[in-house]
Specification:
This protein has 139 residues and is of the alpha+beta class. It has two domains: 7-94, GIY-YIG endonuclease (3-Layer(aba) Sandwich); 96-139, no CATH class. Helices cover 43% and strands 15% of the residues. It has helices at 27-36, 61-73, 76-83, 90-94, 99-122; strands at 7-13, 19-24, 51-58. It has a three-stranded antiparallel sheet with strand order 2-1-3, with helices on both faces.
Length: 139
């Protein structure tokens, strides 16, 4: 008989309002460990009491770890949307205020790469190419 593995990505809300996320194979045990302050060096130790506000089950540990890594990078607003079961807000919350600046930077990178490729392909025999200044203005 094949054994079913069970892993959890969980999120705790700390007494100071911050969120903590983690991965475990036993959600009940891990929550009690956090709540009892088992690890003095843990982020949650000085932020008790805690509330378990989100948990998602995974069959494979690697999937759980990947999900937790993504969750850790999310903004507080995105985490709160998940906690509040407002998943429809996630696409709008994913759009950062610097998206125009990021797009311009990507354009500049692509333009510089295209210039480099052009330079290499057009002057491969001479080994030199003229410098072209590429600038992108972002308001």
């Amino acid at each position: 008989m094949k054994r079913h593995h069970q892993y959890w990505v969980y999120m705790l809300q700390c007494s100071d309002g911050t969120f903590y996320s983690g991965v475990t194979n036993n959600i009940e045990r891990r929550f009690v460990e956090h709540q009892n302050g088992l690890h003095v060096e843990s982020y949650t130790f000085t932020r008790r009491p805690l509330r378990l506000v989100y948990a998602s089950e995974f069959q494979y540990v690697q999937d759980a770890i990947s999900a937790e890594k993504r969750l850790k990078k999310w903004s507080r607003a995105k985490k709160k949307a998940v906690v509040d079961d407002r998943l429809e807000l996630l696409p709008d919350l994913a759009r950062k205020s610097f998206s125009i600046r990021s797009a311009a930077a990507e354009l500049l990178e692509v333009t510089q790469l295209s210039y480099l490729l052009f330079c290499v392909s057009s002057n491969s025999s001479s080994g030199s190419c003229d410098r072209v200044d590429v600038s992108v203005r972002v308001a």
